[in-house]
Amino acid sequence: MITGLNHVAIAVPDLEKAASQYRAMGAEVSDAQDLAEHGVTVVFVALPNTKIELLHPLGEDSPIAAFLEKNPSGGLHHICLDVGDIAGMTGIVAANGIRVLGDGRPKIGAHGKPVVFLHPKDTQGALLEFEQA
């Protein structure tokens, strides 16, 4: 079952500039964190009811590099939803014809918890991420 909104992710061409803009608006912004397994460097902007994740490519093979080639100014990349049981949700979405990206098994995300991504062609054109709450 989906239990809440975890974060909204925005791909950015200049991570420090983006983080600085949120700091200037008074938001709490985390330090940058490299996630080699996902090919990204991330920064989280803490808000009272959710987070914004700023994504930047980590290496040339990063999926964010390809996204920024198509969207040089950056843009909305994905929405992350909390789920109570990621294995159970993966089974539910598969039973409903929704593809899980990669090998279908969860990877550890930026918060140290299991995550999976769903194919945007199966989810109304939006890339969805599930994170086990």
Question: Can you characterise this structure?
Answer:
The protein is an alpha+beta fold. It is built from 3 helices and 9 strands; from the N terminus they run βαββββαβαβββ. Strands 1, 2, 3, 4, 5, 6, 7, 8 and 9 form a 9-stranded mixed sheet that branches. A hairpin with a 4-residue loop joins β4 (40-46) and β5. The longest helix has 10 residues, at 15-24. The radius of gyration is 15 Å and the shape is globular. It starts with a strand and ends with a strand. The model has no long low-confidence stretch (mean pLDDT 96).
Summarize the helices and strands and which ones pair or pack.
Blueprint: E1 2-11, H1 15-24, E2 28-29, E3 33-35, E4 40-46, E5 51-57, H2 63-70, E6 75-83, H3 86-95, E7 107-108, E8 114-118, E9 128-132
Parallel strand pairs: 1-5, 6-9
Antiparallel strand pairs: 1-6, 2-4, 3-4, 4-5, 7-8, 8-9
